[in-house]
Structures are given as structure tokens and as C-alpha cells.
Amino acid sequence: MIADLLKQFFDPFVCLDIKVWENFEKLGGVHHFPKESVLKASNTTEKYLSLLLKGSGGNLIWNKNNFVCIDIAFENEFLCDYMSFTLQQPTPIEVRLFEDVTLFRISHQNFQQTLLSGNHGEKVTRLVAEAAFIDKQQQQIDLLTKTAKERYLEQLQSRKGMARTPLKYLASYLGITPQSLSRIRAEKI
Question: Do 42 and 94 contact (CB within 8 A), yes or no?
């Protein structure tokens, strides 16, 4: 099951044999966590690369007495502090769940085995990093060139689950106040 999901996720970037993903699946496991769980506290080191199978969560940073959401993840997306995972150093990012979730998790140690085995681990790592970079770059461009309403509508159309994201996290992700997001939602769109 996980191998099939990984293959579907990566096939647009690189088409690898299902056996590659089956080997990858053996290195991790499926875990369940309740809503509002903190998978990685701020100023700690990320130990797991997690793929969301069900539910949602995000990356948060504490700033001026509240959390700012810098990333949101839904089903079939990765949820982790990727910079901390890669560097194995603490960051101020907290990884928090917005709903009850089911995750496929692979530890940093086991992930390193994929790199050393020559089993396409380096290619997969590069693709994950490229996808994360492109996503962040697009988010920055959108913040500078689009209105909050445009960003909100695009997110609703392009990402399943965005409508069920808690208002305070979604508003901060869009770079606006919860009151502004409430007004946008109230408009006849």
C-alpha cells in the first residue's frame, strides 16, 4: 500500500520500479496520532520523514506571542521539518497536527540506509528537496504578487483539505489575520 502511494507520488518526477518503493516501505512504519499532537517541538531536531496518509498538519514558528504557519500538508504530502531532518540540527519549527492523522514514518537513520544502498535514495532525496524548494518559492511569489483572496481561492482549488484547516493556521499561512480570512470566506465567491 505505502509502496504504491510513494510510486504514485514520485512517478511524475521519476519512474522507478515498484521494488524500489517496496524496499523503502520496509524501512518505515505506519503510525497514528491524535489532533494537536506535536510531532517535533521547536528547537529540537527532526528524527522522521513523514508522509501523511490521512489528516493534516503544518509547520509553525512562534513569533510575537502566537504561532505563524509556514507550511501546511495534507494526504499524500510530506509533513516534517525537512531542513532539520536533512541537517540533523535543531530549528525553531514546530510540526503540529491539525487533525487525527495516519502517517508513514521513516527514521533519519533508516533513511540514510537508502542513500548508502545505492537504491535510488540520492535521487529521491534530491527530488524531495527540489519539490520543497519549488513549493516555497511559489509561496513567496504568490505572497508578493497576489491578493489574499486570490491566494485563498487558489489554495482551495488546488489542495484537497484546505477548507478543513483551522482558521488561525490557514490565515497565518496566507499572510493575513483570521478576521480578514473570515471576511473573505463570507464574501459571495
Answer: yes
Q: How many domains does the structure of the chain reveal? A: 1
Please report the DSSP string for 63-100 in residue order.
ETTEEEEEEEE-TTSB-S-HHHHHHT--BS-EEEESS-
Contact indicator for 155, 69 with CB cutoff of 8 Å: no
Give 25-39 pLDDT, tens digit per residue. 888 999 999 999 999
pLDDT, tens digit, 9 for 90 and up, residues 89-140: 999 999 999 999 999 999 999 888 776 666 676 777 777 778 778 888 988 8
Question: Region 151-179: what's the mean pLDDT?
Answer: 89
* Tally of residues, the chain: 189
Q: For cell 533508516, what's the residue?
A: 110
Beta strand 28-33 pairing with 48-54: unpaired
Q: Check which CATH number belongs to the domain holding 92 and give it.
A: 2.60.120.10
Find the domain containing 178 and state its range.
2-186
> Distance between CA atoms of 129 and 123, rounded to whole angstroms?
10
What Å distances lie between residue 186 and 25, 49, 99, CA to CA? 44, 37, 24
CB neighbours of 28 closer than 8 A, spacing ≥ 6? 2, 104, 105, 106, 107, 110
